[in-house]
């Protein structure tokens, strides 16, 4: 299972706000039944690496459909195969070491 | 105010786990009185861009003190000057457009 | 046409050197007949976004075959659809503005 | 010595072209006497990590002076302390393993 962060950034739109683009992508993910987590800097997805990359290829198209002419998509794919890793588990593992949870 | 994500990744440590390194950096931030948010893929900081970058320069040294010989530090600095932006505000702005909050 | 940078980083290998992993991936690209450019921080590919992401999904598997148990793959996909963009053209466009080429 | 890639991306400018912004930053680096390498996806710098981050803090300001209201700056800082690493050396090390140079 890979944990993946993706940030889809339309360029040259004339507006400094990106939230409507992010909302379109989030709404699309929900319509597909895909679980995701929104952070201040991106969207977190979990799953098999090839499936997630195929999903991101579709997400990357959405701002073009909204009129963007250039889109920069940043992906950080963290894939660990020696144990089952989850996005929630990663944060909890640090919190446990800091003595915040048991 | 910039919103910044930083991921500090020690390489060649012989262990696939990074959580003890992340906990050290988080503990150090708390000792400095710096507010941060931990996501599954990084640490979110807010503040003036030069101050945050100076802080990250110090964070980047910590894994070397723990014995790492190579450290890759990824930074995404999102700096908006036409309105006051916060990490929480970015996520809420999307949630509002999705009709999840008012 | 998208211009894409990909960096494939195996974690926890016990060695600070990554060049043998990069060479494996580069050799694989050459065996596939894929054109690429190597920079000090990644591999540059050009093509349709979905095809490049599908190719990267295969590249991402290679370090696991070499024994890595955790792989972090960083992707920056720059996709411009209002004009034909190439990796070489992007660098030349800046050089022209700096008066270094005509 | 760290090897660092930085990409400075102004958002909401109304133009899909970034080359004039990149040229401004490159011209500024040359005026400062800083050595850099331009790749299709960013600018490569070499030096001590804190000094490079301080330099990037200044580079990050330049698009604001040109009228941008939001700037996203992406940094990948690769810092190896067990041997002297250079940007050129990293690429040559891979080329040597591929049998392209001796």
Return the average pLDDT of chain A rounded to an integer: 96
Q: What is the straight-line distance between the termini of chain A?
A: 24 Å
* CATH topology-level name of chain A: Alpha-Beta Plaits
Largest sheet of chain A: 4 strands, antiparallel
Can you tell me about this structure?
The structure is a homotetramer of 102-residue chains. Chain A is of the alpha+beta class and 102 residues long. Chain A has a single domain (2-97), classed as Alpha-Beta Plaits, CATH 3.30.70. In chain A, 40% of the residues lie in helices and 29% in strands. The first copy, chain A, contains 3 helices and 4 strands. Chain A has helices at 19-31, 49-65, 87-97, and strands spanning 2-11, 37-39, 42-47, 70-80. A 4-stranded antiparallel β-sheet of chain A has the order 2-3-1-4. Chains in contact: A-B, A-C, A-D, B-C, B-D, C-D. β4 (70-80) of chain A pairs antiparallel with β4 (70-80) of chain C, so a sheet runs across the interface.
What can be said about this structure in brief?
The first copy, chain A, has 102 residues and is α+β, with helices and mostly antiparallel strands. The first copy, chain A, contains three helices and four strands. Strand 4 of chain A pairs antiparallel with strand 4 (70-80) of chain C.
SSE arrangement:
The structure is a homotetramer of 102-residue chains.
Chain A: E1 2-11, H1 19-31, E2 37-39, E3 42-47, H2 49-65, E4 70-80, H3 87-97
Antiparallel strand pairs in A: 1-3, 1-4, 2-3
């Amino acid at each position: 299972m890979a944990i993946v962060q993706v940030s889809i950034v339309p360029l040259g739109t004339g507006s400094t706000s990106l939230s409507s683009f992010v909302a379109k992508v989030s709404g699309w993910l929900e319509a597909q039944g895909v679980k995701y987590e929104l952070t201040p800097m991106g969207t977190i997805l979990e799953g098999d690496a090839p499936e997630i990359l195929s999903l991101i290829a579709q997400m990357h198209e959405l701002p073009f459909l909204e009129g963007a002419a250039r889109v920069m998509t940043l992906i950080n794919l963290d894939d660990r195969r020696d144990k089952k890793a989850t996005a929630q588990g990663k944060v909890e593992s640090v919190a446990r070491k800091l003595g915040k949870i048991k």
